[in-house]
Amino acid sequence: GGERKTKSRPAKPMSFDQIGGQERAKQELVEALDFLVKVDQISKFGIRPLKGILLTGPPGTGKTLLAKAAASYTDSIYLGASGSEFVEMYVGVGASRIRDLFKEARQKAAKQGKSSAVIFIDEIDVIGGKRDGGQQREYDQTLNQLLTELDGIHTSDSPRILLIGATNRKEMLDSALLRPGRFDRHIGVDLPDKKGRTHILNIHAKNKPLDLEEVNLEKIAEESFGFSGAQLESVMNEAAIYAMREDGELISQRHLSMAIDKVMMGERTDREATK
Ligand code: ATP
Q: What are the AAA+ ATPase domain coordinates in residue numbering (predicted)?
């Protein structure tokens, strides 16, 4: 269908350097991706093809960024979707969207002369949730189609497809998805520690006029304990807005501290609103 067009625009190349912290996740991901890159060796050793990687962890920690970086690292095209796009009233619609997604990935890769494609499905638990026995859900067919697509991937395929799924509720996933030959690798993407937060703040400070004589991002990282990468990006952005409103030239430590409070408050109001 035409619904997904906006998301399949040529993605800006994303590299692992643009992702702050997450050192362990990055390393595990690169190790897994090397299975895709070193095709000849893989077949020589008779190793089963890597079909799926599952990224698990809280929202806003960089799972989408990691999937995009995985596509650049393997010189693949990137196609992104969200689990909720496949939930439909009518039986079979979700399944046919899955089929279309894989088909589109193969066609796009072939058209661009790439030998592989990365398909990223965020909120994979929405389609891959546990099937509880008798109760048939309309989207069981969607999950079955996803399993069929995964089972149909072979090492010698050209283009090769790699599915990357993301969820923050791994325990909800149907065991069929977690079996070897489906999501072969599970990589945890956690909230960043202080070092990670400093790194992320630095990345998002790059195009911003910081008062370098005064600003101490390590201190901001200390004050933002428990923040995700997405929240830290917001902190930098809100600080820039405060600085601009004051007609200042530069972003100061005070602007950054105010921004931390703002982002923290925002989270609280969001949570209250959804109660
Ligand atoms: P969700 O599960 O909610 O989809 P996610 O884990 O996929 O979240 P991303 O979409 O990758 O999170 O991150 C959202 C935004 O937050 C990014 O576009 C980026 O600006 C910022 N961000 C998150 N994590 C990082 C990180 N590790 N380094 C730099 N920026 C980050």
A: 49-193
Q: For ligand 1, atom 11, which residue shows the shortest CA distance?
A: 62
Furthest-apart CA atoms within the chain: distance in Å = 65
Q: What is the ipTM metric for this complex?
A: 0.97
**Tens-digit pLDDT profile for residues 131-187:** 765 555 655 889 999 999 999 988 778 899 999 999 999 888 988 899 888 998 999
For residue 2, count CB atoms less than 10 angstroms from its CB and return exposed for 0-12, middle for 13-18, buried for 19 or more.
exposed
Write the DSSP string, 127-145.
HHB---TT---TTHHHHHH
Quote the pTM value: 0.90
Nearest CA to ligand 1 atom 10: 64
Helix, strand, coil percent values for the chain (each to nearest 5)? 55, 15, 35
Question: What sign has the CA pseudo-torsion 199, 201, 207, 213?
Answer: negative
The Å distance, Cα 230 to ligand 1 centre, comes to 5
Ligand 1 near 20 CB (within 6 A): yes
Residues 168/230, Cβ–Cβ less than 8 Å: no
Instruction: Give residue 66 CA to ligand 1 midpoint distance, Å.
Output: 9
Angle at CA of residue 88, ends 61 and 85, nearest 5°: 25
20 CA from centroid of ligand 1 (Å): 10
Length of the chain: 275
